[in-house]
Design brief:
- The chain is mostly helical.
- It has one domain.
- Helices cover 71% and strands 0% of the residues.
- It contains seven helices and no strands.
- The longest helix has 21 residues.
- The radius of gyration is 14 Å and the shape is globular.
Length: 114
Amino acid sequence: MKISEIRARNLRALIRPEVHGNTAEFAREHGLDATYLRQMLGGHRSIGEKSARNLESAIGLRRGSLDQTEATTSGSAFQEIEKALNEADFLNKDQKAHFVGLLRTMSQSKKKSD
């Protein structure tokens, strides 16, 4: 699998309808262009090195997170998201707890399906 395909798969895994609603809302939440994001997710645009690093920065992920393969993605990506949620200054304590709980539920569901 090409690195751009790995990045698209990992990015797709971050956009959860139950959390973000849709790609446009995810893009808006992170200051990204929704059309450009959909093109990358749909394979019409490759996610190169520069784009991957910019996406990680905008989303609040550790550098290189989108490059991780299947073996490391599920746990690591969820951990990165949980870390970002806990550090978010725009969420109150209850909101953080709600989203972290939802994230853990999704992580457990993914492990059961694997």
